[in-house]
Design a protein that fits this description.
Chain lengths: 111, 114
Amino acid sequence: QKEVEQDPGPLSVPEGAIVSLNCTYSNSAFQYFMWYRQYSRKGPELLMYTYSSGNKEDGRFTAQVDKSSKYISLFIRDSQPSDSATYLCAMRNTNAGKSTFGDGTTLTVKP
Amino acid sequence: GAVVSQHPSRVICKSGTSVKIECRSLDFQATTMFWYRQFPKQSLMLMATSNEGSKATYEQGVEKDKFLINHASLTLSTLTVTSAHPEDSSFYICSASDTPYEQYFGPGTRLTVT
């Protein structure tokens, strides 16, 4: 079983929809939780990071962490065609230098 | 935000030759740099972690003699694929970090070995 599980999709939504992306994990030592966006043939771009549990909002993006359930989410409001990309969740232990990544969810927002 | 560059962006080489990929943090000092490999429609596979001035830590299954990593300064790390073979063809991505929670990725290098 992988440490981080992420549904690969693909996920297709109409423009303006609310998108929910999720990851589950098994390692209770994870403290930092990140979401990255990766466009085709490009490197990942950090979207959001959250420390421990709680919510964090940045514009149309909201990240949620529920450590008791070992579940994290990324919500995208008013989705746009430019949001079409692969979204990767990632997690880190405070003492480790490396992140563990999910496999990514491919999102398409149709005009 | 922090910028990480990679050079070259694409490279084609013949089987048996070596290829060097550079990763630079342009506007911050990276205490740690990571090298990843990514196959089409798959996630990032961590190959190694390097700290400036010390030997890289390789993940299990990654041949350290084949994938040579040098982290000579706080802004530069290099990955050399030695004696490349077609199965080494992949998208190689570096990232740089100066904090425990933020990791900035380069744009990637697509390597094709013929």
